[in-house]
From TrEMBL:
Belongs to the GST superfamily. This is Ganglioside-induced differentiation-associated protein 1. Keywords: Membrane, Transmembrane, Transmembrane helix. InterPro entries: Glutathione-S-Trfase_C-like, Glutathione-S-Trfase_C_sf, Glutathione_S-Trfase, Glutathione_S-Trfase_N, Thioredoxin-like_sf. The gene is GDAP1. The keyword Transmembrane helix applies.
Length: 330
């Protein structure tokens, strides 16, 4: 199990000391973890990261099942409270850490801004990002140039079979958690079938296109006094976090070539993203594993070590590097 890593915004104020006890179980390349980390940095809250090695299946270990039976990250621990799911976590920190100088990410309920933010948040959060991500990895011809090395792509391509086998082994050896393992394996198989179906992947990409088109329509209206507005209002909100993490993922899997081409299909969105990438919170979120990644940079990528564990082939060095995220490419 990976050790705790303290992650502290450099401009944390004393008024935010109530965030000291936050522990985030996360993985640097998890799309949903990035949303939570982004929100924590926007709110300038101190937190510690417990890195979960998703590619080696650490999320299926019994100690983690006791924290989250769904075997998923992120999970936030605040004292004795355990909050799973990125959306629930962000709502929790918004409700409990928005006093004094801590900025809010969601406008007051009942306000026009609140309705606007929540509508866009729902639209962006409902994009089938797992299907889009793995669809591009398994069908590279539908995307552009990925910001992933060939080794990293192979790791992801091998994940479905490796994890299905791992979950089968675990369900047979651990009666207490058998149901959780079998449910997880069933969900993984369903996703795998969708990923292999080019028509389903194409539909998912159309969903992305629709969401970005709606965003562009809003940004077009931001002229005059609204020129420096973010997506929904003059404040940076949870809708902006959802949008920025989505755009970063599209860059990683090569779809930026499709949506941000020479014809500038979404010119206002492109300008918006350039501005958003300059935010301190964005930089800290996307570069959070930089020190760890550099420690692996001198490894010879030819030295890929495969260790058989039961019926599962676990990638040792290669998976280790991938686990600490190609965040600088995101």
């Amino acid at each position: 199990m990976a050790g705790l890593q303290t992650t502290v915004s450099s401009d944390v104020k004393k008024s935010n000391e109530n965030g000291n006890g936050l522990i985030l179980y996360q993985n640097y390349q998890s799309y949903f973890c990035l949303k939570v980390v982004f929100a924590l940095h926007e709110k300038k809250l101190k937190f510690k990261s417990q890195i979960i090695d998703l590619y080696r299946g650490e999320q299926y270990e019994q100690w983690f099942l006791k924290i989250n039976p769904k075997c998923e990250v992120p999970v936030l621990k605040d004292g004795v409270k355990i909050i799973p799911d990125s959306r629930r976590i962000i709502d929790y920190i918004e409700d409990n850490f928005s006093n004094g100088n801590v900025p809010r990410l969601i406008p007051d309920k009942g306000s026009p801004e609140y309705q606007h933010v929540m509508r866009m948040r729902d639209l962006l959060d409902n994009v089938p990002i797992k299907l889009v991500t793995y669809g591009c990895i398994f069908h590279p011809r539908i995307s552009g140039v990925m910001k992933l090395t060939p080794q990293e792509i192979k790791i992801r391509q091998g994940m479905f079979i490796a994890h299905e086998n791992l979950l089968t082994d675990l369900s047979e050896k651990n009666e207490e958690y058998k149901d959780q393992y079998l449910v997880k394996r069933s969900n993984l198989k369903k996703l795998s079938c969708l990923v292999m179906d080019m028509s389903e992947v194409s539909k998912a990409i159309l969903d992305v296109d629709y969401a970005l088109e709606e965003v562009e329509k809003i940004l077009i209206t931001h002229d005059g006094d609204k020129k420096k507005w973010w997506l929904c209002c003059d404040k940076f909100t949870i809708a902006d976090i959802s949008l920025c993490v989505l755009l970063t993922r599209l860059q990683m899997i090569g779809l930026a070539d499709k949506f941000f081409n020479k014809e500038k299909k979404y010119p206002h969105l492109q300008e918006y993203f350039k501005r958003a990438q300059q935010r301190d919170s964005y930089k800290k979120t996307m570069n959070q594993g930089e020190t760890i990644l550099r420690s692996f940079s001198s490894l010879d990528t030819k030295e890929q070590v495969f260790v058989a564990v039961g019926s599962v082939a676990i990638i040792a060095i290669a998976a280790g590097i991938a686990t600490f995220l190609i965040h600088r490419n995101k």
